[in-house]
Write a structure and sequence with these properties.
Blueprint: E1 19-28, E2 36-46, E3 51-55, H1 62-69, E4 77-82, E5 85-86, H2 92-102, E6 103-106, H3 118-128, H4 133-146, H5 162-174, E7 180-184, H6 192-208, E8 213-217, H7 221-224, E9 229-234, E10 237-243
Parallel strand pairs: 3-8, 3-9, 6-7, 7-8
Antiparallel strand pairs: 1-2, 1-4, 4-5, 9-10
Helix pairs in contact: 3-4, 3-5
The protein binds adenosine-5'-triphosphate and magnesium ion.
Magnesium ion binds at residues 62-63, 108, 184.
Amino acid sequence: MTGTITRLKLKNTENMPLIRVNSLDKKYNEGKNNEVHVLKSIEFDIPRGQMIAIMGPSGCGKTTLLNVVGGLDKYSSGSINIGGNNIGEISEREMTNFRLDNIGFIFQLFNLFDSQTALENVTLPLLLQGYSPDDAIEKAKMMLQEVGLGDRMNHLPGELSGGQQQRVAISRALITEPLLILGDEPTGDLDSETSADIMKLFQRTIRENPQMSIVIVTHSQTIAEQCDRILRIEHGKVASDEVLK
Ligand SMILES: Nc1ncnc2c1ncn2[C@@H]1O[C@H](COP(=O)(O)OP(=O)(O)OP(=O)(O)O)[C@@H](O)[C@H]1O
Ligand SMILES: [Mg+2]
């Protein structure tokens, strides 16, 4: 039947790590003479309830790793399992709905809808999930107030500073209470005080939802040290994996 949406539920795997990445390889332009081998035999698990920082030099493959883990980009070999689902075996359509229900993305370049206000950007995922407009708007307003944008909700992204846009992007990722947050330098454009507030928001979110995990890419040692664990990537490989808490 056309128009039917296949929703992929998380399987009953509460005792397993939320994410299991095995022998993950990613090549761009595979088989061509300008092939770029970005991720090489990456392996790690992320248990539920953990906030993990991914660090590493520019170009080492951090954004690529987040994109393939979140199903936005294809990988070349290996496997990625999220909540009992091998995402390599999921159709693109199922993955779209799986992401909507379970993953909150905070993109390095925000990816906000330019013609929609901050409030509309944050309301959208809830509308897609079937919330009534009134409930969606009320929830989105509370979220934006929480990140200090109560007085900027009706502005377009182009009328907001970089840090304000970033907070809209963070709100949009958190609003659906996903099981997995993937943040690509989510505090990169924030001053230290606002960064600290956002880190507290992440920590509170995970405390209140111990079934979830948060993965953030950061170049800041201070931010990384507020996480439970630091995974360092160098030249497409896991260089170190340090548990802090
Ligand atoms: N579409 C693409 N085609 C070919 N190569 C790509 C593509 N996207 C990324 N790359 C290359 O893959 C490597 C990893 O890129 P990626 O964006 O994952 O790095 P990063 O660790 O996130 O860097 P940064 O800290 O600067 O954000 C880089 O060498 C980049 O040039
Ligand atoms: Mg990047």
